[in-house]
């Protein structure tokens, strides 16, 4: 099968997948932002040709990057060098249940008095990534400002 040469500069986060034993040929887009992984496979057979599947994969990647970049611009704070969330005392937490399901939360943590620690979690599934983050930030601000 002859294919067009691949321009690697335009294939950021796009990888060729050829698994002949599994009859699987296509392009996979894989990205990770703020601890969340995004992936999608574009099969040659579904998209009629390797070249067409590659174009569809690139378009999907470009739309995803645009969406993720616009979310990053709506951050409510500047990034802190002391953590990854941008807010001291706010972090993303992953909890695995006994059933093997992974739950993601934004968590606010604070110390109401020496030797004590409190936290509150906001579900990303329930509130969405951005809203859960905002709720955690608001909870932390309220907690540290309350008497």
DSSP helical segment count: 3
Number of strands: 6
How many angstroms separate the termini?
71 Å
Rg computed from alpha carbons, rounded to a whole number of angstroms: 21 Å
Rough shape? elongated
Structural class comes to alpha+beta
> Which segments are poorly predicted (pLDDT under 50) over 5 or more consecutive residues?
73-80
Question: What percent of the residues sit in helical stretches (DSSP H or I)?
Answer: 25-40%
Largest sheet: 3 strands, antiparallel
If you had to describe this structure to a student in words, what would you say it looks like?
Strand 1 and strand 2 form a beta hairpin. The protein folds into two domains: 66 residues, no CATH class; 56 residues, no CATH class. The strands form two sheets. A three-stranded antiparallel β-sheet has the order 1-2-3, with helices on one face. A three-stranded antiparallel β-sheet has the order 4-5-6. About 5% of the residues have low confidence. The protein is an alpha+beta fold. Helices cover 31% and strands 31% of the residues. It has three helices and six strands; from the N terminus they run βββαβββαα.
What keyword list fits this structure?
6 strands, 147 residues, 2 domains, three-stranded antiparallel sheet
Please sum up the structure shown.
The protein is α+β, with helices and mostly antiparallel strands. It has helices at 50-73, 124-127, 129-145, and strands at 14-19, 24-33, 36-43, 90-96, 102-110, 118-123.
